[in-house]
Write a structure and sequence with these properties.
This protein has 371 residues and is an alpha/beta fold. The termini are far apart. It folds into two domains: 194 residues, Rossmann fold (3-Layer(aba) Sandwich); 170 residues, Rossmann fold (3-Layer(aba) Sandwich). The chain has a six-stranded parallel sheet with strand order 7-6-5-8-9-10, sandwiched between helices. The chain has a four-stranded parallel sheet with strand order 1-2-3-4. The protein is built from 13 helices and ten strands. Strand 6, helix 8 and strand 7 form a beta-alpha-beta unit. The radius of gyration is 23 Å and the shape is globular.
Length: 371
């Protein structure tokens, strides 16, 4: 989303740079890392923590080497970026949009233990961000509620849901004789795809025809392929692997389904809605904020294959209901998740910092005159 934001602000006449740490930069930084609200060294020696700290050091090294100009405002989209920029540009306002929970993803994917040192380290960073940065924004009310446990004043956290350029999404009139189901995600445990395959096995046993299209790649692919074979749906399932622009492919399908175990927002649901697909998701996080059950999609409990199969069955056997949900989801996504809305909200935030800077400059000029 960020490059599209930059493009829109350039068209508005704003001077905006996009800066990131290249993947090839690894192990270059050596400057010591200090946080103000906790001592990260208490968690040193854990691989996730050590990798995080080294990335922080690399970001400091890369930023010092590459950025020489001054900025009126820095908008970060990752905790490392936000903290490093505030360290190197202490007089510049720095805000951050937190898009998701790295620690929850690691826990759900079996990489770290809940309550363990890595979990404690990563959640401690939220308080550090609150203490050092000028503003925190996140992508859903649900995720703001999640952050409340780790910050002192969650009411100060803003919510700006993700936005999408509608020109990227072109619904296509089509008539599939066999319902086409599609899911787009990384193939990791957090996405709950084993529940989807189990549900599709139930549909197959009940005699419902379908084709399941899985776009994405990841470590779970071999296990998912084995499960599809065991449930008798391997011939009805297509594993595509990674695809750069799945939104160009999605409009040809009928139902988007993703039974995630957690989502801060779930951008792919909004993208699927803009492609005029019926939506089926789990009643968690940002998904439940996008889908009003029975009105613009269907929600099911996490990990419930029978409930998921039942929801999909309703859409498979009733094309009119499927279209009704898809149309409602499309209308909501165009209104609630437009890039124009994001630009308006960000412009208001950015202008607020500009006004503060202008007032400070006038005050400084006045004080100089007094002297």
């Amino acid at each position: 989303m960020v490059p599209y934001i930059q493009e829109r602000f350039h068209k508005k006449g704003w001077d905006m740079d996009l800066f990131s740490l290249p993947k090839r930069i690894r192990g270059k930084g050596s400057e010591e890392v200090e946080f103000t609200t906790f001592d990260w060294r208490a968690y040193a020696g854990n691989p996730t923590v050590d990798k995080y700290i080294q990335t922080y050091k690399d970001y400091v090294w890369w930023t010092k080497m590459r950025l020489k100009k001054k900025y009126d405002l820095i908008h970060a989209h990752h905790p490392i970026a936000g903290l490093v920029m505030k360290q190197l540009f202490p007089e510049t306002p720095v805000m951050i949009t937190i898009h998701s929970s790295y620690e929850r993803e690691l826990i759900l994917n079996g990489k770290i233990a809940e309550g363990g040192p890595e979990h404690q380290f990563l959640t401690s960073l939220y308080r550090e961000l609150e203490d050092r940065l000028n503003q925190i924004v996140t992508v859903s009310s649900s995720f703001r509620s999640y952050l409340a446990e780790y910050v002192q004043d969650s009411e100060k956290i803003g919510v700006i849901a993700n936005g999408f350029d509608p020109k990227r999404f072109r619904p296509i009139s089509h008539d599939n004789t066999t319902p086409q189901l599609i899911s787009v995600c990384r193939l990791v445990p957090a996405k709950g795809l084993e529940t989807l395959i189990e549900a599709c096995g139930i549909l197959k046993a009940k005699g419902h025809p379908f084709v399941l299209h899985l776009i994405g790649d990841g470590p779970c692919r071999p296990e998912l392929e084995e499960l599809a074979l065991a449930r008798g749906i391997y011939e009805d399932t297509i594993f595509y692997g990674y695809m750069l622009h799945p939104e160009e492919f999605m409009p040809f399908f009928d139902i988007f389904v993703l039974p995630s175990r957690a989502e801060a927002f779930g951008s792919v649901f909004a993208e699927a809605a803009l492609c005029l697909l019926a939506l089926v998701g789990t009643n968690v996080g940002g998904i439940s904020e996008q889908i009003e059950n029975g009105r613009n999609g269907l929600l099911v409990p996490v990990g419930d294959a029978a409930a998921l199969a039942s929801a999909l069955e309703k859409l498979i056997i009733d094309p009119d209901f499927r279209y009704q949900l898809a149309r409602s989801a499309w209308e909501k996504a165009k209104k609630a998740y437009s890039m124009n809305r994001v630009i308006r909200q960000l412009t208001e935030v950015y202008e607020g910092y500009r006004q503060v800077a202008s007032a400070a400059a006038e005050e400084a000029l006045y004080m100089d005159g007094e002297e």
